[in-house]
Amino acid sequence: MMDLLQILVSDSFWAASLRIATPLIFGVLGALLCEKSGVLNLGIEGIFAAGAMAGWMAVWLGAGLWGGVLVAALAGAFFGLIHAILTVPLGLSQHVSGLGVTLFATSVSYFIYRTALPNVTSPPRIEPFRALDIPLLSDLPFLGPVLFQQTALTWLALIMVALVWYVLNRTALGIAIQAVGDNPDSVDAQGLSVYGLRIGAVVAGSALMALGGAFLTMSAFDAFFFGMVNGRGWICIALVIFASWRPGKALLGALLFGAFDALQVRLQTEVGALVPGQVFLMAPYILSIIALVIAARKADYPRALLTPWFKGQR
Amino acid sequence: MTAPLVLSLKALSKRFGSVIANDAVSLDLHRGEVLALLGENGAGKTTLMNMLFGHYMPDSGGIDLYDAAGNAHPLTLGHPQAALAAGIGMVHQHFALAENLTALDNIALGSEPLLSLRRDRARTRAKVESIMQRSGLTAPLDTPVGRLSVGERQRVEILKALYRDARILVLDEPTAVLTPQEADSLFHSIGAMTRDGLSVIFISHKLREVLAFSHRIAVLRHGVKVGEMATAEADDRAIARMMVGADTPTTPREPMQPGAPVLHLDKVTLTGTSARDRLQDVTLTVHAHEVLGIAGVSGNGQSALAGVISGLRAPDRGTISVAGTPIAHPDPRAMIRAGIGRIPEDRHHDGIVGAMSVAENMVIERLDEPGIQTNGLLNREAIAENARTLSKSYDVRGPGIDAAARLLSGGNIQKLILARVFEQDPNLILANQPTRGLDMGAAAEVGRRLLEARKRGAGVLLISEDLDEILSLADRIMVIHDGHLTEVTTRDREQIGLAMTGEPA
Fold this sequence. Notes:
The structure holds two protein chains of two kinds.
Chain A: H1 2-9, H2 11-36, H3 44-60, H4 65-87, H5 94-116, H6 143-147, H7 152-170, H8 172-182, H9 184-189, H10 194-220, H11 232-242, H12 247-271, H13 277-296
Helix pairs in contact in A: 1-12, 2-7, 2-10, 2-11, 2-12, 3-4, 3-5, 3-10, 3-11, 4-5, 4-10, 7-8, 7-12, 8-10, 11-12, 11-13, 12-13
Chain B: E1 5-16, E2 19-30, E3 34-38, H1 45-52, E4 60-66, E5 72-74, H2 80-85, E6 88-91, H3 103-108, H4 121-135, H5 150-163, E7 168-172, H6 180-195, E8 199-204, H7 207-213, E9 216-221, E10 224-230, H8 236-244, E11 261-270, E12 279-287, E13 290-295, H9 302-309, E14 317-322, E15 325-326, H10 332-337, E16 340-343, H11 347-351, H12 358-362, E17 373-374, E18 377-378, H13 380-393, H14 410-422, E19 428-432, H15 440-456, E20 459-464, H16 467-473, E21 476-481, E22 484-488, H17 493-500
Parallel strand pairs in B: 3-8, 3-9, 6-7, 7-8, 13-20, 13-21, 16-19, 19-20
Antiparallel strand pairs in B: 1-2, 1-4, 4-5, 9-10, 11-12, 11-14, 14-15, 17-18, 21-22
Helix pairs in contact in B: 14-15
């Protein structure tokens, strides 16, 4: 018990939680943006892989780190566009198209990686983002290590939470996105383009998702390897429901999952001799399911989620 | 009419496949005029208005708008954006509102620059408030639309059009969802706005309100304009004849002595989360040879009542008896066995299995009967024979008895359901909004069948939002409001309308 308390008040635990949460924050925001417009994007798992590979490869080929981030976002936007075209104007099943995009994006990423590096056994490393280490602030007790020794991508994720919230709630564009996810006819009747808004939201959301992938290869690790996304995309899909489609709660959900994950690593070293390690690996997922069961009952679904809309059919 | 022209539709035609929806329809609208567009379902009223608003591209013909100086400007066809810019506003039957947004956001939607980082909500609000003051149409601006009443939502829709500086307002069946009082107040607001120079076209098939509130009437039938007249010179029988092409056979309700009770609900209570699925101590009796009409504005517990009687919802308290026998465990199976025939509210969703054939849908409630099945195998020939007979006697038209039921038109789906229900010779017929969305001919047919069943000895529970329908068919009338059921003895529209709003009659 003392040990648990010690873990919970330690700055390294909270720093790790925020670090683990970072890719999830990008992913949840991206999924939230897509779903707010009425489109479920199950391509997220593959888009994470594509972002991770594209960002890493751009840097490995000589681009700057921010250049890599841009390339990752573009890769995400590309796969998002495929999903958007299939599901918005063509109105195909969002589930089927999303899973297809996940398989496609994952395989293409592995394929490109293998084609570029046919004979390597250990993945080549890049120089990743360093902790920002802001003078003075990073020396603050507790807050310093938790907040001010993170990398620039973590800060970008936090800025994105505020940005997505502001755009959705305070701009005409955000109001239109919320409207198209609730009742596309309301948007059409006012002379706005349903297709344009939905495709735009899916493309932008997918670019955000890819940044979550880029964080993995460019900040959390310094190389790309197979299977590194490891279900993070699916967790984001669940976290959107937990967050009831609100950016602030999305941040909270991602942090909660990050904290569970950071906690299980620490508990494993504490009591690992008594309990099999797999139990700890399962813990964050089980706790997420419990949190979801509690939160999802009150979740505020976008009414037009999963419903295709066709021009001229009322 | 001496007022200047504002709009003229010139020989508009539109076909869908082999169906001619509009055949060279021309129509003029003057400044400050209220024009009623009358016609049966499928007569082409909505198609015509959708061409005006740019939702459909006409096959031929054109639309001219006139400016204040009387110069004609052709409207770019097929673009809602162009229609909006030209000052044409349309309020559809199904509201085009985002329920998660406030009324103010819905009104402003699409008229602000999308890519700007700030919104000028104060200016939007000031403009909307001044419009509300002038027109008398008010709605709470900061509540999510999902929490507004139907009447308020409709006012938001109209405010949306006025906010866009509409000079011409098109209303598609505006009163279908309103209480008589709400409808009257809507028309008074329209009156006030037309004095300010707004021109209004409203689509309706309620003769009463057309005669009371329009200046001019145009009648469409089968896509052709068959008549146009000043309302002052119109008479209702002539218009009805024009709409259907012949006198409508209205079956008079012959007086009849009610028999034994066939359905009795004793203090049935259903606790629900919203008004639409709540019932409070509902007691009612339907006798043989009797039609009991339940009037009320939609969402006041009608679906809960229908759910309880059809066995889909188990009451929390109270008992249900059919033909004197209490039903211990009410479920749909037990209710069908007890002799309740159901005409559900949503005929597409609850009345048929769309993917199954017409023939299969006709026997779907009695698949376990010998003759329909032998040892668990369906007797396909008997099912087909049954379908052929019923299609003929109930005049079900469509692509054939083996076609999927969803391919039938709304009127024919309703005939299919009627055939299925009446052939079972039920003790009680639960008819929930049986004529909603049907044209006059089909609606009259439904009424005739219900009265025929009453004559044969069935009891009919008729739930309807159409007061005229209830007045013409029901022997006794009860009003449902917020889950409470009250019997009204009056036949006065005003009084019943008041009871529908919850005021003591």
